[in-house]
Amino acid sequence: MISLRMDDDAGPWNEMAMVGRIARTHGISGHLIVNLETDFPEQRFYTGATLHVHRAGQTEQLIVTNVRMHQGRPIVGFDGIETMTQAEEFLGLELRVPATQLVLLPEGTYYRHDLIGCNVQLLDGLVIGEVIQVEGSSEGSRLVVSTGSEELLVPLVNHICVKIEPKAGVIVIDPPSGLLELNKTAKQQGGR
Fold it and tell me: What is the pTM of this model?
């Protein structure tokens, strides 16, 4: 039986920021490999850190017992997860922290969760869709924008994303001619 404390004081799940997603098990001792969704892994994945998962309709706390980095990803042990079978129950789950624990970012930089859900519009005000994901790293990111019928990739660079207002839920873009047509995702272009 896994012993996890229920999270009573961290706030609603949707108000938390994702810092990683559990990718797969590692070994037979319950360790898990995490795909990072943070530029600050050392501030999120350390012995004693508290992370949160959501499963079976409830938010639960996981306490990190040990961690080591391997090929850019943390291999993490959590309190109460001691076997591969127990670890498998957490595959694919998001790891989150309360937004109040996030580092204050410099002007002009944003957390991914701040951009997801923003409406993307052209300079003339025409809304082309909603940001459903941010791909890439801080060195080169792109917005995945759902138009309803397709997905578009928009480079997250100043000369294209000319106005970003997460609190207002708006990103204004000025794409070069043909960019939006060119950057339809492969899934939407017939799976090529």
Answer: 0.68
